[in-house]
Design brief:
The protein has 110 residues and is α/β, with parallel strands linked by helices. The protein is built from 5 helices and 3 strands; from the N terminus they run ααβαβαβα.
Length: 110
Amino acid sequence: GEEVWDWIREEGFDDHPQVTLAFGTMNLDELMDMLGRCAWLVASSTGPLHLAAIQGTPVVGIYLPDRPFWPKRWAPIGPHTLTLEGPRTTSASGIEVDPQSVREALLSLT
């Protein structure tokens, strides 16, 4: 949600040389290479989240708490994974997760 983007901006990650905000900019080989080099990844239950997790990249998956979207079924598999749950926001695809929870999850993985 917008709160996470606010946190990214406040922390300076949107301008950080080691942070990549990549939306549709890579082919599969490039994506796999980048995911394997990430310090960590935060994403909803998407292909990149799962691809990073199986490579051993620390990941935080963000999920809705109810079926069929819940992490009990769709959690990433890998040695360094955490999931956070939040209710659906008023937007069609948003999930409300406290930015501090995301930060704490990331710190626990590093």
